[in-house]
User: Which sequence fits this backbone?
DNA sequence: TTTTATGAGATTGTATATAATCTGTCTGAA
DNA sequence: TTCAGACAGATTATATACAATCTCATAAAA
């Protein structure tokens, strides 16, 4: 392995990508020996990667049978976004009640960083600032379990996102949505804030649906929110 | 291993129990070689068990450092119940809209089985029927991702439950709550049904809190709902 | 023909061996 | 003393060896 990280981590993200892009088809069996060969590692780290992938839901592990690709269908992907939307809406609702002034400041800075990055056309920075914004909302919910689950779900959706492309000015709209959510939080209107967040996240699923419903295969990724 | 199952599965539930009961203390390091010795297996299935436990959140895996017990604090346990309550409330809300008559029938039967088991004092049967009831509500939500996450969270809470004991007639109250939830669903009042379910689950956390807040240590388990 | 046995080959599960990394202690220089 | 470097022991990560299980084709029996 050229990478300094644990081999299993690397392998995991590689396979994750291959499943997301469709290089590995749904239901396909992943043979340990073959893949170990392909990645130039032994079966041990590979099996570890399988277990992680099972946790992400991209692989099904059947005892004494092996690992099988479980690629989300269009329907399932929409359900994942629906679930994520609800989680984030709940985070916002709780955060609105419990937000400290320090957290509030942090959120505004993250939002402003998003805007700067967008104007500068720096997608990586936008991505990072956006993560900071959402991450702080998870944290500000004050429920550490909810926070973790939100992060986990976000991570599960990651391979189905696209960092690079801004389709139909979605990013511009996202900026406005961020602002609206923060405004509603400032007003202390938790229902409104939650509702806006739900739509903000769920729009992704819909946009996705709208563009790609006709396609048989689930495409590789989704625009970033 | 005397068991016919995969060793890792067995080991996993053993360690799970030991963490829940406090035999392994929070933050304690789990040494691979020692535990392998203790369970009379090699380190391989043990490492697998660690990974599963990490997914359940009972262990933290630090690369090149090892596995460390992460036993939920009282606060965290309450947060877990809070999260579960919200998940189930959402399930009920969606289920109320989408319930088929077959599913409705299934629910009523499960509820009635709960009652029979309770009267007969058969705790195992109550447990099973109760699971059927809740499981069907997850399924009837129509969102497979939500359904899975509800099951996952239920499983995570399992080691902290107690199947045997009915404290302060909690089970009797649970029966009534089941009936009320189903009634609200029949009426098509999704908000009411969701609210009742939220309280039904969350009561556990509160009951727990009420009884055991004074204790320093998180006790082994919680009454069944 | 259909069904059940059986065995070889393939594949997964577990054990063990080797490599890489960490931890803590010691030394010696500033 | 205090701190960087280095070495030894311990521990984890990975590779390989061995055991258990499954798959599937073949063949014998109903």
Assistant:
């Amino acid at each position: 392995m050229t990478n300094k990280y644990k081999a299993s981590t690397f392998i995991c993200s590689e396979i994750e990508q291959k499943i997301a892009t469709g290089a590995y088809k749904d239901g396909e069996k992943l043979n340990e020996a073959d893949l170990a060969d392909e990645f130039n590692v032994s079966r041990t780290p590979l099996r570890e990667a399988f277990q992680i992938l099972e946790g992400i839901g991209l692989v099904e592990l059947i005892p004494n049978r092996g690992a099988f690709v479980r690629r989300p269908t269009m329907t399932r992907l929409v359900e994942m976004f629906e679930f994520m939307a609800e989680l984030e809406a709940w985070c916002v609702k709780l955060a609105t009640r419990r937000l400290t002034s320090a957290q509030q400041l942090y959120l505004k800075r993250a939002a402003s960083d998003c805007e700067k990055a967008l104007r500068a056309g720096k997608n990586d920075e936008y991505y990072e600032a956006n993560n900071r914004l959402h991450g702080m909302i998870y944290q500000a919910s004050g429920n550490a379990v909810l926070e973790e689950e939100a992060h986990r779900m976000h991570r599960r959706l990651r391979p189905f996102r696209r960092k690079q492309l801004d389709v139909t000015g979605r990013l511009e709209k996202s900026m406005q949505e961020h602002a609206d959510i923060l405004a509603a939080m400032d007003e202390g209107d938790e229902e409104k804030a939650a509702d806006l967040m739900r739509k903000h996240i769920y729009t992704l699923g819909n946009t996705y649906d709208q563009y790609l419903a006709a396609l048989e295969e689930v495409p590789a990724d989704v625009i970033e929110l």
In short: The beta strands of chain A are 29-30, 59-62, 66-69, 161-162, 222-223. Chain A touches chain B through 23 residues (CB under 8 Å). Residues 56 and 156 of chain A are 6 Å apart (CA to CA). Chain A has two domains: 7-69, 74-223.
